[in-house]
Amino acid sequence: MQQEHVLTPSKITAADFKAWFVCLSAGLFFFYDFIQLNMFNTLNPYVAQAFHLDAVGIGYLASTYMFATVCMLPFSGALLDRFPTRQVILVAMLICTFSTLLFSVAHSIWIAALARFICGASTAFCFLSCIVLSTRWFPSHKMAQITGAIVTMAMLGGALSQEPLAHLIEYVGWRHALQIDTLLGLVLFVMMYFSIENYPAGKKAPELNTEPVLDSYKQAFKNPQNMICGLYTSLMNLFIFVFGAAWGSSYLHHVYGLDFTVASRITTMLFFGTIVGSPLAGYLSDCLRKRRLPMILGAIVSFGLAFMLLLRPSLSTSELAAIFFIIGVTTSTQIISYPVIFETNSPKITGACEALAGVLIMSGGAIFQPIFGIMMQSHWEGNFRQVGENGLPIYSGGDYHFAYIILPVMLLLCIWLARHVKETNCKLVWKDTTSSNG
């Protein structure tokens, strides 16, 4: 048997550079869309004042985004299997930019909700289209690297939507800030228009799927790897979904007594860890020619760190920042799921399979954010705690700590899921998907 070389850098050719340039240009869509996804955390007080909303109203308005994404994902996969990827990306980018402008001028809560719904629908295309395009430009053994780089671009967009956006709002107001955001979208659209190509020159155009949509999804459901990888990625993302987007600052404030500003800086370390971890996980997976092993190790280390937070509620600020950063790094092995799905399915149904996984991934955020709150509420009621002057419950650190249990438990489940991932050795093995896993 011929021995494989691992961790050996290869020369970058003009074709390699072109492939990276095209796919990272498409990644600008993911970067921009991630700004829209995470900006609501910064916009909350301004939107509440503009539309006279309480916390429940804000919650419903925010949820329209993710609800639209989950609903649209199955259709996005079908469209990407049947239409040229470049055209799909550009149209979706225009829709996303338009929705941002619409939200900035909305004076009715229904128009604002419609704008967020449209923006969420476009999100169903951003990462999925980048993955499908990458399969046209990169060989299988480099898919994890490009996936990690694209996720890194998205995390940079998420970081931009926090403190930088807050400063911009202070200077020009939230409506004008969103209109500047719209101009950014148009600039990125022009860049993408002149940079994105469907496939390399001289390469035969990929065969588009002409089968009925339901047949594509039937095939996607028949391969258990799509469900396993989708669930693994969803649960590994829970620290981002639950702590990075909703409960992290409040948890650190009540459990560790930190100021909210300090707490928000610590939760930001999750994003910085993911920025470092995503390309690192992809590079190591491709160089080692292994998919399952890094996924197992990432889940084990993430569980250990999450369990440490559960047992040690007296950590220092620097220790918490380090733990959150490392959790961001280790949970980044979730990006390996995407090349596994590509390698274990027919290229004709790549979009459908990635969309199926995407539904599971986004549903995790939609489900576990309220579950965290429900667990807090159940613990509060069990201890008959006080209510504030406004009649709302006053939650304690114990209530937050009780709800936190769900995170290490789900990471423990990730270890089991990773053990059932089919090892592809970075090769296309989709013809063998009917065989047993492993």
Notes on the protein architecture:
It comes from Candidatus Synchoanobacter obligatus. It is a single chain. This protein has 438 residues and is mainly α. It folds into two domains: 17-198, Up-down Bundle (Growth Hormone, Chain: A); 210-385 and 392-438, MFS general substrate transporter like domains (Growth Hormone, Chain: A, Up-down Bundle). 75% of the residues lie in helices and 0% in strands. The protein has helices spanning 14-38, 40-51, 55-82, 85-105, 109-137, 143-160, 163-172, 174-193, 213-222, 224-236, 238-256, 260-288, 292-311, 317-330, 337-343, 350-382, 397-404, 406-419. The chain is globular. The two termini are 21 Å apart.
